[in-house]
Amino acid sequence: MDKDTLRTALSCKCPHCAQGDLYKSRYTLQLHKNCPSCGYDFAGSDSADGPAVFLIFILGFTIVPAALFVELTFEPPFWVHMILWTPLVIALTVAFLRPVKSYVLALHHKYISEGR
Question: What are 24-34's pLDDT values in tens digits?
Answer without folding.
Answer: 998 898 999 99
